[in-house]
Amino acid sequence: MALSRYIILFLLSAFAFKANARQYPMIKYPLSGNSLMGLTCGSQLYFYPQYYGINSGNLSQFNNTTQRTTFINTIELGLKNHSAFNANAKVTVTAEITNYFLDATTSAPTPITLEINYKSGELKKSDISNVYTFKNAYKVDVKITCVDVMGDAGASATDIANLKIKLIPFIELNAGFQVERISAMSYNTLINGLEMCEDKETDELLIKWDRTVEAEAYELEYTFLDDYTEIYYTPVAPSLIPFDFKNNSTRVTVMEPNYRFPLVYERGWILYRVRIIGRAGTNLDQPVYCKWTGVMERGMVSSFTNKFYRAIAHINDSMNWQVASTFAEEGKRSDIVNYFDGTFRSRQTVTGMNLERQLPASGIFSGMGTAPCVEPGNAKIREVIAGETIYDYQGRPAVNILPVPTNSKKIKYLPLLNISNSTQQPYAWQDFDAPNFTCPNTNKLSSNFQTNSGILGAAAYYSPNNPNKLGFNAFIPDAAGFPFTQVSYLQDNTGRVAAQSGVGEIYKFGNNHETRFYYAAPNQEELDRMFGTEVGDALRYQKNAIMDPNRQVSITYINPEGKTIATALAGKTPDNLDALDNIATNTIDISLMNKNIINQDDKTMIAEHQFFVSSDNTDYTFDYSILPETLIAEICTGFPVCMDCIYDIEITLNHVESCAVTPLITPFSWTIGALLNTDGNTNLVCNNTINTGDYPRQI
């Protein structure tokens, strides 16, 4: 039995195979540089793009009873890296094209004009590409007769000449060929050269096979079986592990003769098989699903040929984890792994996503060669993105760090992903919280790039230290060490949120740009004013308020069913806005006695009321009135005795949104009645009268 089990949730999208011709990546033949931009109107430049492997002598191989081939052709004029070009320019190319078709015919010269109009500056519409499209030409003769450049209105000839020089590295003319091919396929056609290898650099399994020219696509099916027993280090023999592809497998449709997937598995066996999808029928319009490699649908692992043994479980079974794999067309996938601590709190989420790759131009029909187990050089086929949740002293999710590309090659738990700038240790609750409900300042994350591990944390990604500044990455904002949101909670064990910060230094706690949440109770008087007496008892209603980062307060009244019955804005009129015409100041008198809590054991009566103060320096007056009681009795001699009942009164205002529930203002306390008289003797005379008072405070 594994020390930490996992759950794999495969979200399989249903893709029915559609009988379309196989479409290969478009191959482009570029013409650029001085040879293009140096051309003037009246001169000529010839360009002869031709698709690889096809000529007038072998056309019959591509259109016959067993194979049909079509082309999508383009002639495109484009502005490369236009974000780096900072001038207005209009470029017009005039040309004649002659097409050589697959049916051995040749078209008459066709005149075409391509034009792009680039306007420098923000929020201006520009044409950076112009495409002429046609079909079924395996070769194109392009005769360019004019390249005309225009700049700003009133530009001189010298300005235009300089603009043409400036455009040389940016303007490109492309001839594109995209082939679609249909070939007849027999059901008995099998995959050849099926093998696998483990890429230890990326912790992935690569399954590859020889390309079949007639294949429209391939189907790969694989299944996993663990070999745990009650004794962890003693695996089950493969001869005792049954498998069944029908009931427990993953199937993907891919266009290329190889497939990679991360080895996010426990210890055990991965069994795999592949088959070809082709076309047949009179019109080559019927899909054919060929035989699988291997003849076993079910059986014992030891009897199956194509398998891989995962000897070391993911992260060596040292943490709890869960993976969810989502599939899209052509085998694209996203693997999301959640890592949990011993209390099953999610600590880190790591996502692996496929990157798009362009196939080389050569070998489209004859085979692409063997896919390497380890990608050559710095080739990158997967982006690993990780985000983290940090919990406070009481174990509540408090800091959510933005997910970022980590530069990691493997999907795994990254213990040093986000480092505290103060301690140079992994970010933890000590960086923003402390015991005893205190409110320490929040430490920022270290924005230093981890040169030893090569891992890129969130603070480094959102900082000038990000090594990737190409394209839109040059505009990634600087979080100044605060690429996270932070949540603080009310200290009343309800788990209610008191405040939430935004992302970045400006919106961190302490800068008065956080969102604050307030929880109060409406009084009967204000509900009756809005809804009348049919509203019912105010004790059943809630009155919540939210203060947004701009300090605007919104109030919501909620009924016993949890439905919103009224909303309003509160607080002072912002300086940049006009006040409402009907704005008025109203004073409301309410009674707090309907919320009494009487304790017979210690003879106390507590009236507690939560209210929300929407504007600073608001006046509140708390009035009290008591009709004291007396005790009248006779002593043994028959002498009458009258004693005052003694009352202790205390009024306290607490600021409940703070980290520590401390008095907002000095508490008011008073005692009515006395046990002793001024002589120090027992007071046997009843002299209590009605006592009243007020407690005016500005909050």
Short key terms for the protein model shown above:
single chain, mainly beta, five-stranded antiparallel β-sheet, 4 helices, disordered N terminus
| End-to-end Cα distance | 62 Å
Going across the major beta sheet, what is the strand order? 1-21-22-23-24-25-26-27-28-29-30-31
- Computed Rg: 39 Å
| Contiguous helical run count | 4
Range of strand content: 35-45%
Largest sheet: 12 strands, mixed
Low-confidence stretches: 1-19, 357-370
Which of globular, elongated, flat, extended, rod-shaped describes the shape?
A: elongated
What is the share of helical residues? Answer: under 10%
Count of beta strands: 39
SS class: mainly beta
Report the average pLDDT across residues. Answer: 84
Description:
The protein has four helices and 39 strands. The model is unreliable at 1-19 and 357-370 (pLDDT under 50). By secondary structure, it is mainly beta. The strands form ten sheets. A twelve-stranded mixed beta sheet has the order 1-21-22-23-24-25-26-27-28-29-30-31, with no helix packed on it. Strands 2, 3, 5, 8 and 10 form a five-stranded antiparallel beta sheet that branches.
